[in-house]
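Appendix B. Raw example, untouched.
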Amino acid sequence: MKRLCTHKNLECSSQPGHESRRGIFIVVAVLCFTALAAFVSFAVDLGFINFTRTRMQNAVDAAALAAAQEITYAVQHAGPNVSDVAAYAQDEAGDMAAYVAELNGVYVDANVDVEFGRRSYNDSTEQFEFEWGVTPANAIRVTARRDNDDASAPDGKLPLFFAGIFGHSHAKILVRAVAYVDSRDIVVVHDFSRSMNFDSYYNYEAASRLTRSQVRENLLTAWSDLDLNIPNFPNDGAYLTQTSTDSGVTTTVKFKYDDAEVTTDGELSEVKLEYTDGSTSTFTNVSGTTANVDGSKNIYKVTVKTSVSSAGSDGGSGSGSGSGPPVTVSGSGVDVTFSGDRKSYSVSSTKQLVYVDSYFTNGSYQYHDINPYGYSASFNESNAVDYVWIYYRYYSSGRWRYKWEQYDAPPAGSGGSSGGGGSTSVITQTFFDTDNNVKAAFGMNSYSWPYPYGSWNGYIDHVRTYAEFRDNDNDPANTDYRERFGGATLMNYLLLYFSSHYECPDLWKTRHYPFHAIKEGHLLLCNFLQDLGFDDEVGMVSYDTNHRIEVALNESDPDIPWVDISSDPITSDYESVRRLMLYKQASHYSNATNMGGGLKDAIALLDANKRSGAQTTIILMTDGNTNTIDGGENTSLPGDWDWDALFDYDGDGTRDYFVNGAQQRYVLRLAKEAVDKGYTIHTMAVGIDADRDLMEAIAWLANGHFINIPGGSSVEDMEDEVRDAFNRIAAFVPPARLTNDPGGN
């Protein structure tokens, strides 16, 4: 029934349809509430999912970065005893990723969710790219997942709050993070100066830190490496020994610089030494069959007198005074027979006699010309003869040769008894320390000098005159090498005078120090970088008086392989870079130390060949002091150079290093240029003569590491220290970086 309301009586009447509209509103309200509830539940669950995803992403970011840093740490601390550094670093990194994720409340399975790969440079695209599942690795990808249907598992699907109303009670979540260690472009700058062989031959620098026995061992090591098969040439050196047999008497003399060892099967009566300066010493207090004669200078000639007695008819050799039996004194093909009273004598010779001069006991003398020249002569004198000088000639090698010899008369009345009829012969034998005798004794005549520079004559003179061969310490190992011919002294001669490749090209084969220790370190560096697999590339610069970028080997020696990396001088061809150093020697090109030139070349090499995105590093080493510079170079420092700011090691505001030398300042200026270009410089000082202060300052300025190798008591110690140093430098990999997941399998 319809109710009406009039203006007058305000009476109302009911209208049909109002109840049906109320029912529609309730339905709409229920639907809207349901939609609102669904939206709210979706928003809550979505927010929870995003919150969880963010937390998981933060956790894997931290885990990936920590794992990559663990690779860096493991590489730096693995040490030389770890055979596979890359595998060791991977194991450590995987465990670290799981550990850091767990600390952040996120589960990561180190065996499933941690992947290793390599970030390397693609020459075609000129970009760095990732490849997963390969070793060795310099990149790591960490995945955290909530996708296990078992919600109670640590990687179970994420339970939702309201979505279950709509049949979705759990959500899957997967997040990833990638971190990597930057590849490096490394330039190694080697010192090729001559001082790089100073520990392997006798010199005053080596004497300041090594014993003579240690230097001797270094010489013998190098000699063994040189592998020259010279007949009758002893390794450790031997003295010239001469033997002569005359009138049945065999005598041997060993020349030991200023001493002589004499052995004979006669009875020694006198040894006379003649020195290279012409002076003499006569020793009459000798007897028996041996004598060690202590001279005072370098001996040139030894004259030995021995007595040989023959029994008379009564069986006695006897001795008497006054007149006695004749005595024959023999020498180099010359026999002089003196009468018993020594006032007459006869000469018989296999050489032509020219002059015979008599010197008497009273100090007077008498000259005799032999005209024409003959092979025998007799003389009767009015005074007793003390000694005779004989001048003879003989034909040899196409010409006449002339020589003086002295023959001493035994005291008058010696050599027998008047009643026994016995006689004593005095045999005089002369021995010479000549270059020709040395060559004949030690096989030099049959072995041509093997190198472009030097000679057997020069070597012999070196052994006779080199002052450092003298043993002033009386080393029990007998390291006095004066007049000792053989491998040790030949090696000394080559290393001292002919160390450059054009002079003696075989020295690259020898272990001469400290150069060989640096060579071993270089090879270790290349091996380490190759095994590490971080896509590091390496180039090489050397310096001495000059400097150059090493890119090629092209030698006539068939033992030296051909190498050419000129098109890619900073390269991952580690074998070629190994060879560039393997076939080098100290003073390979020249002698001095132009460190600034070497650093300049290293900077230029990086400027022209560094890869975009690679860390740039220079390794600069020396064993001495920079002592030369290219002509025309500017050695002044920039106007804004601040020693206090640049070299304040301890943070007190005051410089800890300062230098005035132009050559040192030139190197520092170049180091600052490298720093301004973003290059890191590690430095290495080898041996006690290295300029440690400068090398430390360069490393400080260039954000690098300074490694000091003072040198131990032996080359073995130095080798160990250098190998460890190169291992440490190779392990100074850059800090890890995060990047977006590049995808890939």
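End of appendix B.
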